[in-house]
Amino acid sequence: MVTQNTGDAARDFEETLNTLRHCSIDDLRKRWRVLFRAEPPTAFGPDLLRRSSAHKLQENAHGKISVAAQRELDRIIALMERDPAARIESPRRIKAGSVLVRDWDTKAHCVTVLDDGFAYDGHTYASLSEIAREITGTNWNGPRFFGLRPSSKKSLNKIAPAKRGRPAKVSEIKSSLPLEESHVL
Q1: By three-state DSSP, how is residue 157 classified?
Q2: How many alpha carbons lie under 13 Å from residue 144 in its C-beta half-sphere?
Q3: pLDDT, tens digit (0-9, with 9 covering 90-100), for 103-119
Q4: Domain layout of the chain by residue ranges
Q5: DSSP 8-state symbol, 97
Q6: pLDDT tens string 15-39
């Protein structure tokens, strides 16, 4: 069996992409049928046929996007559809070895982040929510309890409403928060 080296494969891929630029719409539809094993959408003109075919060729050559990346893109798209001016925030990732500290009921509670969970009070837990429930005795969102997720804008406005039409200052928000705080060491 003869295999191509990666340089030859990359050149072949580039050549195939370049040929798409010069194909007629009939040729593009034929290529679509081969690539997708289906009829091309009748509404697709040459530009969309080229782009879709190029994307499929790229997936075939280099692999598809990961499920996690697709989920994150879907989340961002949904956010932008709801509010085009929304600020996109990446989810926080905590490295193993980090220590989360949460003051609750006059005691500092320390949680160590592990590769496969969280260590608290001599036990290993799968989620921060389990630990928050252990500490408080009620259901809490663990990342929010430990300060890893911000409160919604609505809840911040309830805590420290803006005065005379101006945004609330950080000092006003901090002064109106409960005494219990979270810290990441």
Answers
A1: helix
A2: 8
A3: 998 899 999 999 889 99
A4: 6-62, 99-184
A5: T
A6: 888 899 999 999 999 999 999 999 9
* Sequence-separated (6 or more) residues with CB below 8 Å from residue 105: 135, 180
* Distance (Å, whole) CA 155 – CA 176: 12
Spatial separation of the C-alpha atoms in residues 130 and 135, rounded to whole Å: 9
Residue 134 above 90 pLDDT? yes
**DSSP category for residue 88:** P
Distance CA 121, CA 98 (A): 15
Reported as a single tens digit per residue, the pLDDT across 33-90 is 999 999 999 999 999 999 999 999 888 888 888 888 898 899 889 988 998 888 777 6
Q: Quick one: which of 82, 103, 96 has its CA closest to 178?
A: 103
d(CA 114, CA 4): 43
Distance of CA 34 to the CA centre of its chain: 34
Instruction: State the DSSP code for 95.
Output: -
State how far the alpha carbon of 143 is from the alpha carbons of 74, 113, 131, 147, 151, in Å. 22, 12, 10, 6, 11
Q: Which residues lie closer than 8 Å to 20 by C-beta, 6 or more apart?
A: 28, 31, 50, 53, 54
